[in-house]
Amino acid sequence: MTRHFTSLMETGADETAALVESARAFKRSPPKNRPLAGKSVAFCFMNPSLRTQVSCEVAAASLGAHPVTLFLGSGTWKIAVEEGVVMDGDCPEHAREAVPVLARLCDALALRAFPAGKDWKEDRKDAYLAAFRRHSTVPVISLESAMGHPCQGLADQMTLRERMDPRGKEFLLTWAPHIKPLPLAVPHSAAEAAALAGMNVTIARPPGFDLDPEVMEKLSSVCKARGARLRVSDKPQEAYRGAHAVYAKAWGSLSEYGRPLPADPAFRALWRVSADKMALTDGAVFMHCLPVRRNVEVDDAVLDGPSSVVVDQAENRLHTAKAVLYRLLTGKHYSQEASQCPMPSAR
Amino acid sequence: MTRHFTSLMETGADETAALVESARAFKRSPPKNRPLAGKSVAFCFMNPSLRTQVSCEVAAASLGAHPVTLFLGSGTWKIAVEEGVVMDGDCPEHAREAVPVLARLCDALALRAFPAGKDWKEDRKDAYLAAFRRHSTVPVISLESAMGHPCQGLADQMTLRERMDPRGKEFLLTWAPHIKPLPLAVPHSAAEAAALAGMNVTIARPPGFDLDPEVMEKLSSVCKARGARLRVSDKPQEAYRGAHAVYAKAWGSLSEYGRPLPADPAFRALWRVSADKMALTDGAVFMHCLPVRRNVEVDDAVLDGPSSVVVDQAENRLHTAKAVLYRLLTGKHYSQEASQCPMPSAR
Amino acid sequence: MTRHFTSLMETGADETAALVESARAFKRSPPKNRPLAGKSVAFCFMNPSLRTQVSCEVAAASLGAHPVTLFLGSGTWKIAVEEGVVMDGDCPEHAREAVPVLARLCDALALRAFPAGKDWKEDRKDAYLAAFRRHSTVPVISLESAMGHPCQGLADQMTLRERMDPRGKEFLLTWAPHIKPLPLAVPHSAAEAAALAGMNVTIARPPGFDLDPEVMEKLSSVCKARGARLRVSDKPQEAYRGAHAVYAKAWGSLSEYGRPLPADPAFRALWRVSADKMALTDGAVFMHCLPVRRNVEVDDAVLDGPSSVVVDQAENRLHTAKAVLYRLLTGKHYSQEASQCPMPSAR
Question: Do A76 and C300 touch (CB under 8 A)?
Answer without folding.
Answer: no
